[in-house]
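USER: Please consider what follows.
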Amino acid sequence: MSLSVNWAVRLAVLVGMAVYVVEFLPGYPALKIAAIAVAAVNMAIWALADRSERTRDQYPPALMCAFAATTVVAALASTTPNGGTLLLLSFIAALSVGRHASLAVGWVIGLLPVLAVIAADLARSSASWGNVATVAGTILGAVLIGQNTRAYRLRAEQAASLLAQAEQLRQEQARAAALDERARIAREVHDVLSHSLGALGLQIQAVRAVLTDSGNVPRAVDLLDQARRMASDGLSETRRAVHALRGEIQPLPEGLAELSVSHQRRYGAPVVFEVSGVPRVVSADAGLAITRAAQEALVNTAKHAPHEPIEMRLDYNGTTTRLVVTNHLADSGTGPEPELATVNGGYGLAGMRERLLLLDGALTVGPRGPDWVVEATVPQ
């Protein structure tokens, strides 16, 4: 019900009660007019409360005092001859108390008019338990109805709030999932391009070095053929990355074995790949992280020790799956071919570490004696 309609009903009730008191109820006019006056003041305070910014769930103390006064005075007036109709004012006030007060406050205000009627009857030495029962049933019943209405309204508001929070949480989860997927795609694009283009860049720089340093055209043509094959392999790797994004990734041992053969064919460095432990299925993200770590390690060996032997071992143990890539460091008198460098600027291993950390894994890189070791670990 809108505020204007609500107030129209209140005003109509007040005017009707006032006319009824003045025109039709003889005896005790002062008490009956007092009840009407108190109700009018009550409605005035009520109007101020409705127009304020307070929550309507809990009215201010001044309005509660006005409700209490209305219930008491109107209840006393209702016990006078022909004044029973004024009990309606007590009912309305008690109903409002029940709707907008706590349980304790509502029942205290509801008991006040009952006690007032008992005290008035005792003072007149004409106790009428019928009056007491009527007042108690009417007012306490109004408080109970108001409390039930309040409880229903609060439950509805809480349900609406929970629904809004659930919708907000769903939107946040959808947004987080979208951001995670974007980050995953970004990592895949970076890893595929850094590996494929890095290897291709190495080969092109090798061609340039051969032509500028020795003018060996047949060797340069051979290197260009290798670069063409690398470009073709890069396209194949891109297709595999798309399949991986769709969750379609080949078993980890087979993928690493294929990667080893491809690297040996590209760079002429001997690669030994072995599997220890009992192979098991790992998650797509874990398998992809291990594969990318292997690719980055192989590209780095081509950069820093291009023709040195490489050992790559995939180890399945009880709690983790671990990849160890070991290559012998070049002697101090030899090094990479002139000006060879990867296109990723050295950020590949940092990206691998980030990818593994997201899976509660780890990446360690560093020398061990005469060897350089890259070790990637993911939980089972």
